[in-house]
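We both want to read discrete structure tokens more fluently, so let's practise on a single case. Would you write everything just below, so we can both look at the same thing?
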Amino acid sequence: MYKKRMCIWSILLALVITITILPTAALADYTGEITTFDDLESALNEDGAISVKLVTDITLTDGVDGTGFVTVPTGKTVTLDLNGYRIISTTTSPLDDVIVVEDGATLTIRDTSEEQSGAIVQENVSTFMFKRNILNIGPSASVIFESGTLETAAPVTVASGGSFTMTGGTI
């Protein structure tokens, strides 16, 4: 009887430990260095908090398949370190903003390089009657711009309930 009770307690304890460890492992933070648009896109779909650092310039081109802009998915928390490099949008599509921050997501943009030369650059701002945004911030989403440069003549658009906080850097 004693051995049976100990066996049951051991199994229950193992289950409790497994249950408490699983969410931590599933929501582990992701940190990575970015060399291509595909790297950035993959990193933004990782689980947990995401911290990425550019190690080269990235150019966004026309993308009817959705590769012409960067999307921070719903509910994600992302830190983007420009690290002295640039994200350059050369797209001419009237529908491609440079960075779209979806509902409930948080994006922190910073440049940790000594030169502070990192930038998000939007070329070809107007197409016909459309004006693309350098940042399109969704409802309940937020962008914290700590350092770096936004080079654009286009607006930062913030949906109702969203926020844009600039604590440094230049536009």
